Amino acid sequence: MKTPAFLDRQRPDVPDLVVPGGVTPFYLQGRPVRGRLVRPGVLADVMLTRHDHHAAVTRLAGKALSVVAALASALKFQGSFSLQIKGNGPVSLLVADCTNTGALRFYIRADEEAVTALLSEKPEPSDYDLTGDGYLALTIDQGPETERHQGIVDISGDSLTDMISHYFKTSEQHACWISLHCELTDAGWRTGALILERLADDGGIHIETDDTPDDSWNTATILASTLKASELLDDALPPRELLFRLFHAEGLQIGQPRALAYGCRCSRARLTEILQNFSDDDLDHMMLDDRLITMTCEFCNISFHFQRDDISSEDND
Ligand SMILES: [Zn+2]
User: Rounded to the nearest whole angstrom, what is the distance from the C-alpha of residue 251 to the centroid of ligand 1?
Assistant: First the structure.
């Protein structure tokens, strides 16, 4: 017997991939510095290759994945962290989000003709060349019980790193240092992030060095700047070793690594629920000649097909 759509929990053909040590949190003892190293590994390739974009667009998406993974890992409660960029460039919309448990997803809307035109003029476009002018929003959503926190700034800067740094400069109290990379390597697409946050230097945490908190922060960012993209994206270089190379003389303390995973949970059942909220009239409008309704999950880039006759509107009152 055929499973009715509303019971069909089957997920599309997407990998149930979990990368156990995707995020490595750390802090520098006695210094006002904490940070996260993000290495999604093969998960980046799996997610990015589900979508057929120019490499320049894929690179931007990959960096967005790393940065939301880094920022979400600082969430203290259940919830998600999302980045949205809306601009007037060839990439008109970029959405990436990550839950506190490390479930990652993204989608990017690009005008492929406009991207091609840009690339013919400028083979290596900046992130800004792709997004154009517009805004960048970061949203923390910790469930219906709490207030959603959203900050919005204009797109400012050449790279996604600059855009996010601009956000932190204008809307947050503490300084933040960010490095983001995404490249097509021999092993496939890889992305990574190194983020340092400056903690408020009160409360006597400054105990172990003769340097001032400013000196300690500056030293940490100078050391972090020596990290090469090739090191950040190298699967063969374990996170601990990479962090040790940079910060071994700075009181490095490594925390419990956290997992990252393929984050979309779309299923026929979930989409059926959505369809049932439409009126019969709307459902009839969505239907094509063959009485099929097609719903596409933009995150997974997968289309689900439903028989119109299997969907009954619950909006009948
Ligand atoms: Zn999906």
Answer: 42
- Cβ atoms < 10 Å from Cβ of 222: 10
Residue 221 Cα to ligand 1 midpoint, Å, equals 37
Instruction: List all residues 6 or more positions away from 110 whose beta carbon is below 8 Å from its beta carbon.
Output: 53, 54, 57, 90, 91, 92, 130
Between the CA of 84 and the centroid of ligand 1 the distance, in Å, is: 18
| Cα-to-centroid distance, 276 and ligand 1 (Å) | 18
Structure tokens at 19: 């990368």
* pLDDT at residue 190, as a whole number: 97
CA 48 to chain centroid, in Å, comes to: 11
State how far the Cα of 289 lies from the Cα of 35, in Å rounded to an integer: 55
Which domains does the chain possess? 20-262 (3.55.30.10), 266-310 (3.90.1280.10)
Mean pLDDT by 10 residues, the chain (317 residues): 63 75 95 95 93 94 97 84 96 95 94 96 96 95 80 94 91 85 96 94 55 90 96 96 96 95 85 89 87 88 86 67
Please tell me the distance from the alpha carbon of residue 283 to that of residue 285, in angstroms, as a whole number.
5
CA of 206 to the centre of ligand 1 (A): 46
